[in-house]
Amino acid sequence: MSATTEFYIAQADKCRTDADASSLTQVRDRNLRAAAAWQAMADKLLHAERLRAEKEARIVEAAETGTTAAPAP
Questions:
Q1: Does 70 fall in a domain?
Q2: pLDDT for 18-47, tens place per residue?
Q3: pTM score > 0.85 for this model?
Q4: Of 4, 10, 25, 34, which one is least surrounded by beta carbons within 10 A?
Q5: Is 11 a member of any domain?
Q6: Contact yes or no for 52/1 (Cβ under 8 A)
């Protein structure tokens, strides 16, 4: 997990905490929307990092076995 992902998750947590602490409906809704956006960015980045790691693992495996790396499905 990268520092950026950790930052996104921390921001989402902070927004959820702020939403829970707010007595104003509009402020709570704004913070919940922001939390959802931060979480979506974190999820997207985690997915990209996972795909990149899988691709690198396939390349390393192909290099070790002397075969050509097959494209990802």
A1: no
A2: 999 999 999 999 999 999 999 999 999 999
A3: no
A4: 25
A5: yes
A6: no
